[in-house]
Amino acid sequence: MGNTLMAVGTVVSAYGQIQAGKGQKAGADYNASIMERNAKVATKEAEQIGRIAGFQALEQEEDFKQLTDKVQMGYGKNGWMAATGTPLKRQMQNIVQFQQDMEIAKYNTKVKQNEKMEVATNMKLSAALKRYEGRAQLKAARTQAMGTMLSGFGKIASSSTMMT
Q: Under 8 Å CB-to-CB from 128, ≥6 apart: which residues?
């Protein structure tokens, strides 16, 4: 009877270790799925940053065009030829400055997008690491359960030998 109880206890202990490993793996998989979702969100945010910047650029171009038209009309009302001399130089300076501002805005947009994509990449890597950890924990639990089984059955065999 004692050996039977010892065998049952060994099996139950091993089963508990395997279940604990499965629980750890399930927790790691869940955390990984959250990280993967967050990576998708960061990727979408990066795309959204680009779209918003594109719309803003179109608005700024339209605003600049309207401003330029008003300036040219103002020069005309004052009797200046907008396509010559100082008005032309001023217009060229404004165009160059606007183009520089647009390039800076494009660069800043790319930086923001790259930051979001880096967040997404790190989340994906963290998710992969979590899944790996979960598999390693399950494997360790199975190995520990096997050790428990071998140790328990070894004790049973040893006590049976001593009794005979």
A: 32
Residues 6+ apart with CB under 8 A from 158: none
Residue 124 CA to residue 116 CA, distance in Å, equals 12
Yes or no: say if 129 and 62 are a contact pair by the CB < 8 Å rule: no
| 20 within 8 A of 141, measured Cβ to Cβ | yes
- In a 13 Å sphere around the CA of 12, the CA atoms on its Cβ side amount to 6
The C-alpha torsion from 139 through 144 and 148 to 149, rounded to 10°, is 20
Neighbouring residues of 113: CB distance < 8 A, sequence distance ≥ 6: 46, 47, 49, 50
> Domain range for residue 22?
2-163
The domain tally of the chain equals: 1
**164 residues of the chain, pLDDT tens digit each:** 778 888 888 888 999 999 999 999 999 999 999 999 999 999 999 999 999 999 999 999 999 999 998 888 888 888 777 777 888 888 999 999 999 999 999 999 999 999 999 999 999 999 999 999 999 999 999 999 999 988 888 888 887 777 65
